[in-house]
Design brief:
Layout: H1 2-24, E1 27-33, E2 51-53, E3 68-72
Antiparallel strand pairs: 1-2, 1-3
Amino acid sequence: MSVAIAISVFYDRYKRWKRSRQLRDPFEIHFLIPRVTEYRIDYYPQDDETHLRKTLTLPSNSEHDVMIRMVPRCDLVLNELQFGCLGEIESKPEPLHHFNPYIKEGEEKKPDRAQ
């Protein structure tokens, strides 16, 4: 009987530990380099395979469609999505809009620009 209780307590603590680790880093995020047949990009060489990159370096003062792949590590409902960059404000990239090239009739959203 005491062994069953000990196993139950250990299992509950393990589940709490695993959940807290998932919430510290809830997404697996990569820059997506799609196959050449799916979508054309001009900042990275493409081939017949999809590539995932942890980092992506682009020239400053340029505009590129950057694809981001996010896979949640736990079940969640996403109501809002915010991205940020480290560094000085003058050197940070500015998102102009977002879109999904994998759907035929998607919606493209352009943020209100306060200037």
